[in-house]
Amino acid sequence: MLIECLLLHPELGPSQNSGFETTNPK
């Protein structure tokens, strides 16, 4: 899932990987 998030939102990077689903800008 982390990989998919990085592909969809590479701007977030590993610094937001802990809450990529909660801090999803879109």
Q: Tell me roughly what share of residues is in helical segments.
A: 25-40%
Outline: elongated
The count of β-strands is: 0
- Element-level helix/strand string: H
Determine the structural class based on helices, strands and strand pairing: mainly alpha
Radius of gyration from CA coordinates: 7 Å
Low-pLDDT stretches are none
What is the residue-mean pLDDT, rounded to a whole number? 62
Q: How big a fraction of the residues is strand?
A: under 5%
Give a written overview of the molecule.
The structure is a single chain. The longest helix has 7 residues, at 2-8. 27% of the residues lie in helices and 0% in strands. It contains 1 helix and no strands. The protein has one helix spanning 2-8. 4% of the residues are buried. It has 26 residues and is mainly α. The mean pLDDT is 62.
Topology:
Elements: H1 2-8
Concise description?
The protein has 26 residues and is an all-alpha fold.
Defining key terms:
26 residues, mainly alpha, elongated
